[in-house]
Specification:
- The protein has twelve helices and eight strands.
- By secondary structure, it is an alpha/beta fold.
- The chain has an eight-stranded mixed beta sheet with strand order 3-2-1-4-5-6-7-8, sandwiched between helices.
- Strand 7, helix 7 and strand 8 form a beta-alpha-beta unit.
- The protein is globular, with a radius of gyration of 20 Å.
Amino acid sequence: MARTPSIDGHPTLAFIGFGEAAQAMTPGLFAGGVGAIRAYDLKFADAGTGPPLKAKAEALGVAAQDDIGATLAGADLVISSVVADATVSAARAAAPHLTDGQAYLDVNSASPAVKREAADAIAGSGAVYVDAGIMDRVVKYGAAAPMVVSGPDAGALAERLNALGMRLEAVGEEIGQASALKMLRGVLIKGIASLFVEALVAGHRLGVADKVVADIQKTIPGTDWRELATYHLGRVVLHARRRAAEMAEVAEALSEIGIEPVMAEAAARREAWCASLELLDRFPEGIPDDMGEILAAFEAAAREREG
């Protein structure tokens, strides 16, 4: 039986995957008392992406390593933060290097079934596996981004990590419950983003986008709908490819439990369309905080794609 990790004092932490989430969490983890952070990422070995990503890690005080075994050795806490379809492969790669007394916090946006498969992959290692779902923007909140966690050891781990400045809420003792909560929230949030894209890109082409937003503002007051639309459009520009993959996985998970994934599949298709436009390349200086500029980029890219 796995021993519950203590994670006291100034623990050592290891990231598997050093993308946006891991980078955003790092400063807060150090501020909360983490003594050392190491990271392993497949991109480190790439001649193109490796050097700048390693430089970013080292600027944050993180030891960037090419060997997963060296990264995980002696770490009190391992955080898996990879793309959804690498959740299980990351767990399998980690398993031979995990030992009793370590905790494996899986924050990936994967389905409950995938999380259970990842948990099975490390079951014999002695490490404690905890399923986690990040429920708000890590870029905004860093290590304090609210997360829900589930699994037999979720409550105990949440208590220890919250003492380090994290915000974990245990929502159940079964692996997959946290991911289910995250997944169903995603149907709503990414569905809303897809609705904004479809309505406002069409509205821009027809010259009525501003009027669409103004009319919604009158119909549902109390929210700044232009600001909300701008935010969602910007997030789509940044993350459409990842979101398309996530929503496809949500659709599969819903099908498994007998719910026809009409909205999840639609959101996946719309996000995939957005990804095909390669919109981020049009904003080398960053995404503007202006709905009209973002919609103009959508229109230009869509016209080019249409030929």
